Automatic annotation (TrEMBL):
It comes from the Bacteria. It comes from Hungatella effluvii. Keywords: Signal. This is Lipoprotein. Residues 1-21 form the signal peptide.
């Protein structure tokens, strides 16, 4: 674990998250920098994209083996499939790795253990629209309609029972959703129809 932390510590986080719009108003996860991806099915992935000095680094095979060992160590304690290494590469001074998670809790724990500060949150979950409205109401949080930037009424959002809500505590963080973002809690910044930049604290993203 210490070895992985030391490796990550010498890397420099790059740019902003980038995704490609797909057919039917959805996005695909093709990251050019670090961020979290949330799918319509409620699954989570993280991408960590960083620059490195090739003189102080692994070969790509050694890097992949190193990451797989850390995934195996985590899964040994939390269950097979809790975290999966989807892909990794070292190319032209850029290291990239994408992990898939069984739950938001696994994402929060894994990124904390290995100090992936670009993707680290206290918690991240997919929750029903009604639950998001209840929590937001208790905290005095308001929602913004992304189409026009105006405040959205509770009644309006309550009708969108087929929408997905990402509830995030932590940050700052960038999140990409598979579906188009329709509403956010106040203070969330949109980088595109699918990518949001969240400040520290409790935030909500509601997407199709």
């Amino acid at each position: 674990m210490k070895k992985m932390k030391a490796v990550l510590a010498v890397l420099i986080t790059a740019g902003i998250l980038a995704g490609c719009a797909g057919r039917g108003g959805t996005s695909t996860f093709e990251p050019k920098s670090s961020g979290i991806f949330v799918t319509d099915a409620g699954t989570f992935s993280t991408a960590t994209v960083e620059t490195y000095d090739s003189q102080d680094y692994y070969s790509e095979e050694e890097w992949k083996s190193f990451l797989e060992e850390n995934v195996a160590a985590y899964n040994a304690e939390h269950g097979e499939g809790a975290v999966t290494l989807q892909s990794c590469s070292l190319k032209e001074g850029t290291a990239s790795m994408i992990f898939d998670y069984a739950t938001g809790s696994d994402l929060a724990q894994f990124t904390a253990i290995y100090e992936d500060t670009a993707n680290q949150v206290n918690s991240i979950d997919i929750i029903p629209v009604a639950q998001a409205l209840e929590e937001a109401g208790a905290a005095g949080t308001i929602f913004i309609k992304t189409a026009d930037g105006k405040t959205a009424s509770t009644d309006e959002i309550a009708k969108k029972t087929d929408y997905h809500v990402v509830a995030v505590d932590g940050g700052p963080i960038k999140i990409q959703t598979e579906g188009k973002i329709m509403y956010t809690s106040d203070g969330v910044k949109l980088n595109s129809s699918f990518i949001a930049e969240l400040s520290e604290g409790k935030n909500y993203i509601i997407f199709k």
